[in-house]
Design goal:
The protein is α/β, with parallel strands linked by helices. It is 28% helix and 22% strand. The chain contains 10 helices and 15 strands. The structure holds arginine. It catalyses: L-arginine + H2O = L-citrulline + NH4(+).
Length: 300
């Protein structure tokens, strides 16, 4: 299949079994890219890690490895094929595979992280993923964009977070062009860099429901969601800061979330979701949760 939305792409990434691409963030998750936390460390590049470093936190990479393996086994139990890329000593945040790339309905797109220690992840990721799939991916080089700010909310609707720090308007526009050219609606949401990425304060659960830090999200954005029939389950600022809003929807019905947020888990259950909880303490101390740890390669 030739991708016609970009002149500079030859072929989009095909997963081995020819599964569809990501048509929406809550369509059935089939394949995901993970990276073990062998060199995970808190880098003082976001508010959460700065606080943890101030409090003397140091990563226990063995514990992080165990937590990561439990997550991987659970994904596999739920029928998700996990592609594991190698860790690298100079890439302490590489386990947060979400930020390096985003899979669209038209194939994989390599992104352009703003942080220097994260921008070097792109080459590494790209080489590893080419070995998995055998085909090159498109790459955004205009502006900055990180995957935690990308929400392929549902077929026809893309939401991009723009804090100006990790994702700027140019990066958001370069990425959104692909969707706009296919007549998707694109909502750009501007927020303060304190919150790092959109997925720390907003994650879709199914086509019409999101987990959302209503304390923080501005009313204009909440109105835009409501106008599009998207209901929100509220999460507090403190819960979001502990990465309690950063969840993965396996299929629009089952949600993977942190075991440190019993109130959020209960609110999800009350709304009819099946909830699977995980100890991700080593990762949340480094500023990322389950959504950040998973880069969907195929959904739908
Ligand atoms: N999608 C996310 N929210 N990723 C979190 C990444 C955290 C990582 N320490 C960073 O600052 O880049």
């Amino acid at each position: 299949m030739k991708l016609n939305v970009f002149d500079d792409i030859v072929v989009p990434i095909h997963s081995r079994d020819g599964s569809p691409k990501v048509i929406g963030d809550t369509a059935r998750l089939r394949e995901v890219v993970l990276c073990p936390p062998s060199y995970l460390a808190p880098v003082p590049c976001c508010s959460v890690t700065r606080e943890k470093l101030r409090d003397g936190f140091q990563t226990d990479t063995e514990l992080a490895g165990r937590q990561h393996r439990v997550l991987q086994r659970a994904l596999e139990r739920f029928g998700v094929q996990c592609h594991v890329i190698p860790a690298a000593p100079d890439m302490p945040d590489l386990s947060f595979t979400r930020d390096v790339a985003a899979t669209t309905p038209w194939g994989l797109v390599l992104l352009n992280p703003a942080m220097p220690h994260r921008s070097i992840e792109v080459e590494h990721f790209s080489a590893a993923i080419e070995r998995i799939s055998g085909v090159p991916a498109r790459r955004i080089t205009d502006g900055f964009i990180e995957g935690g700010d990308v929400c392929v909310a549902r077929p026809g609707l893309l939401i991009v977070g723009v804090s100006g720090d990790r994702t700027d308007q140019r990066g958001a526009d370069a990425f959104a062009r692909l969707f706009r050219e296919q007549s998707w609606e694109v909502i750009t949401y501007r927020f303060d860099p304190h919150f790092l990425h959109l997925d720390t304060i907003f994650c879709m659960l199914d086509d019409a429901t999101a987990l959302a830090c209503t304390d923080v999200l501005d009313n204009g954005f909440l109105d835009q969601l409501e106008d599009r029939g998207i209901k929100v389950i509220p999460v507090s600022y403190k819960e979001a800061r502990r990465l309690g809003c950063n969840v993965v929807s396996i299929d629009g019905k089952t949600i993977f979330t942190s075991d440190r947020e019993p109130r959020v888990a209960e609110a999800l259950r009350q709304s009819g979701y099946r909830v699977e909880t995980f100890d991700i303490s080593e990762f949340s101390a480094c500023g990322g949760g389950i959504h950040c740890l998973t880069m969907p390669l195929a959904r739908g």
